Every structure is written in structure tokens, then in C-alpha cells.
Amino acid sequence: MTVETGGATMVAPSDSELIQLLTPEGELVDHPKYPLSDVDIRGLYRDMVLVRRVDTEAISLQRQGELGIWASLLGQEAAQVGSARALSPKDMAFPSYREHGVAWCRGLDPVRLLELFRGVSNGGWSPEEYKFHLYTIVIGDQTLHATGYAMGIKRDSAEDEAVIVYFGDGATSQGDVSEAFSWASVFHAPVVFFCQNNQYAISAPQERQSPIPLYQRSRGFGFPGVRVDGNDVLACYEVTRQALRAAREGQGPTLIEAFTYRMGAHTTTDDPTRYRLASELEAWRLRDPIERVRAYLARSGQATSAFFEEVEAEAAKLAAHVRESCRALPDPPPMDVFDHVYTSANSILDAERAQYAEYLDSFEPAGLRQQESEVAR
């Protein structure tokens, strides 16, 4: 199938390439290599609904001036929730800056994410506590971080541990990703590279980045790649579960390309109507990852209207928590921006600190800023 975009022709993967267990109509499909295991489908549905509500609330908060920016995951809930729920408690996840669904599945309060986008923290959650690393803004960097972490696991002979790293199709054009592929392959590192191919690196379609399907890139580095329907939460779960198991058993890395679609903007500073057609978006709305699970649960009798109402009520409660907690976040003392930049004193930073302190004092009574800073500490 081909879809005409604003400047290129998007080629959808053939059925033979794409691993799918749940069709857009909500019907289960048998797959010989990826049989559906015992998984809580109702729980996966709940996760996706709650994550989407957090995303919607964050966009509203940004529009109201409460956040500086927000990177939406609309349309990518299945890829994130399915893969994240396949992780074991010991596995480490390395995100980029859009993995809000993975953060949710690792137990992170969404408000901690909003701290970063509000500019009141550096995203200071404990990676080891949640087994979820800090967000990475530099495109592709996290693939090297994850590979190094996985090499450490192998060197320490740690058992039952693996690493997953998330990145987008745009990041595959970065040299860091190719370097990570090379190191992971040569050292047989227990890492799963999870590429969410939402088909646009901001405005550049995938066809302008790679002449071949992204999952085939791994062949040149000597490890397997697979393409999964990124809007199918069950397929994402099973494919990731098997890849992680292979990594833990010493079989080395795997590249998973989750073929999905970013239904919203790249970030709240982006206008996607400038580079893609409305008809393309409407076609992908019919493949909505949440609606297909809802259809399956209703058709199979595994969930009643009461269940769906309970989930929606929980989502509304979570949205209120996010809204109220975001607005209540205290602003850090302005001078804190100079803390934790270097491990020791630096003459240039000291000069900048003094200059900025003088600038702030020009707006306030002498000494008041310093007193407020000390009280805040």
C-alpha cells in the first residue's frame, strides 16, 4: 500500500514483513513465531488510556503556559506500553524524550516528567530506582549509553538482565546509532534496539533517510531485525518479550522496528499540517492502537461497559492529579541554574554567576534575592 504525502510517497510494509497479532478491527491473528502468551489485555488497555490522558493533559498545560514545551506520544501508545510491559523488573530502559508510556509502566509519576518540560528540574528521577534512565534530548545519544550499560551487564556476568533503548526513525540517520549497532554486535551485548518509526523525523519522511526498511539495517551489523505493527500492543509485547529473552540468554542484540504513526505534532512548537496531508492522518486514525483493543475486549466479552467507564473515571482522576500537581510545582531559585554544571570550581562559570547575580539584584532590593534563595534551600 502506498500513501501520498506532501513531498514523498510512503510505502506501508507488506503483510509478510509486519508482525501483527491484533488487526485494526480488533480481531486476533495467529502467528507461528509469536504466539500470544498469557498477558493482561485489560491492563494493557488501561495503561494506554491513562497514558493518552496524561499526554492530552500535558498538551493543554503547555497551551496554557504551564509547560515550556511538550513532545506528544499520540498514536504511539501501543508501541511504548506493549514493549515496556515485556520488561522484567531488572531490565534497564533508556528513553529519548517521548517515552511517557514507558515511564508510566516503570512506575514513574507523570508529574516527574512535567518537571523537566516545565523547566523546574533536570529530570532528576533515580534511573536505578525505576530502571528507567533520564530523558535524552540529543538525538541518538541514548543508544550508545544503553549499549555501554549492556556491555557492563555482560562483563559483570549479571544474570536475567537486559537493556532496551528507544529511539525514532530520525535518530537512525545519526552516527551514534550506527556506532551503537556496531559495538553491540561485536560485543554481543544484551540490548534490544526499539525504533518507533512514526514515519517523520519532524518533517522529513522516512523515505528521505533510508532506501531500505529500517529493521533491515541490523543485517549489516550482524544481528537480527524484525518489523512489528507498532499500533498493535499485543504484537509489540510478544516481539519485545522474545527479543529480551534472547538478550538475557546470551544471543546478543535485536533491532525492533515498530511501524507506527505520530498522530500529533512532533512537539508543541511544530505544525504538522505544513508537511503531511489530512487524508494521511485520517487513514491512520482507523488504526488507532487503543480502539482496536477496546473492540477486541468488547467483542470477546472480556470487558463490559462498566470496565470502560471505570478506566475513563480513573483517567479523569489522573488528569486532575497531573494538572494540580504541575501548577503547584515550585520554581527553583534562579541561581540554582549554576549548580551541578561542573564538579569543581570554574572561573568562567564563577564570573557568569556573579554577573547574573548582579543582574537579578538590579530588579530587587539588595540582599532579598539571596535571602529567598537560602530559604528555598
What does this structure look like?
The structure is a single chain. The protein has 13 helices and 10 strands. The protein is an alpha/beta fold and 377 residues long. It folds into 2 domains: 2-328, Thiamin diphosphate (ThDP)-binding fold, Pyr/PP domains (Rossmann fold); 334-376, no CATH class. It has helices spanning 41-63, 77-84, 100-105, 110-118, 127-130, 141-155, 175-186, 233-248, 278-285, 289-300, 305-328, 347-361, 368-376; strands at residues 2-4, 9-11, 18-19, 92-94, 163-168, 191-197, 200-201, 204-205, 225-229, 254-259. Strand 5, helix 7 and strand 6 (191-197) form a beta-alpha-beta unit. Residues 1-11 have low confidence and may be disordered. The strands form 3 sheets. The protein has a 6-stranded parallel beta sheet, sandwiched between helices. The chain has a two-stranded antiparallel ribbon with strand order 1-2. A two-stranded antiparallel ribbon has the order 7-8.
Topology:
Layout: E1 2-4, E2 9-11, E3 18-19, H1 41-63, H2 77-84, E4 92-94, H3 100-105, H4 110-118, H5 127-130, H6 141-155, E5 163-168, H7 175-186, E6 191-197, E7 200-201, E8 204-205, E9 225-229, H8 233-248, E10 254-259, H9 278-285, H10 289-300, H11 305-328, H12 347-361, H13 368-376
Parallel strand pairs: 3-9, 4-5, 5-6, 6-10, 9-10
Antiparallel strand pairs: 1-2, 7-8
